[in-house]
Design goal:
185 residues, alpha+beta, Jelly Rolls, five-stranded antiparallel β-sheet, four-stranded antiparallel β-sheet, binds fe (ii) ion
């Protein structure tokens, strides 16, 4: 039976250890052997359908993430590792890399859903996500830092592909632009 308090304590221990991301990945894999129990604990802790911080300090953030169907994010980075487990819905994760001419190029596409393995993102990862049109996405994210307060992050303008400082309000405008682009086909 998954216990959120115990999981957070184990993650706190993990970030003090030698291989924080590897250890958190193991903890997530253990937890996701009983996804219904994880889902119940997260719903009890965060009954509203939103992004709910369950724990955050400078070395660790645990988030219950709920993302509406059809949502598309612009390309962005986190500047910290992440481990992601999906409880419901489906997310396409596009991984990018910087090119020698200062641009950015998609390198890999990974589909995440509850059948997929726990997904790890490196600290230097650059990615964009796209949620399936059919179903919202619900997942558990663990980050190796305070994702809600990390400065110096970047995002990429969806039309000019220019790298700009991460700004939440502007990010939401970028999301709208991308979703309208998809609607327009
Ligand atoms: Fe992200």
């Amino acid at each position: 039976m998954f216990d959120l308090g115990d999981f957070i304590e184990q993650c706190k221990d993990a970030v003090q250890g030698d291989n924080p991301q590897g250890r958190v990945n193991e903890l997530m894999q253990e937890a996701f052997r009983d996804p219904d129990s994880v889902n119940k604990a997260l719903t009890d802790a965060a009954p509203k359908n939103n992004v709910a911080p369950l724990y955050a300090d400078e070395n660790l953030t645990v988030l219950r993430v709920f993302t509406p169907a059809n949502f598309i994010s612009p390309i962005h980075n986190h500047l910290m590792w992440a481990v992601i487990g999906i409880l419901d819905g489906e997310e396409k994760n596009y991984l990018y890399r910087r090119t020698e001419d200062g641009g950015i190029k998609v390198e890999k596409e990974v589909v995440l859903n509850k059948e997929a393995e726990i997904f790890s993102l490196r600290a230097d990862a650059i990615h964009a996500i796209e949620i399936s049109p059919e179903q919202p996405l619900c997942g558990l994210h663990v980050y190796g830092g305070h994702i809600l307060q990390r400065s110096s992050r970047s995002m990429w303008h969806p039309e000019t592909m220019e790298e700009v400082p991460y700004d939440f309000e502007q990010l939401m405008d970028f999301c709208k632009t991308l979703m309208n682009q998809r609607k327009a086909g």
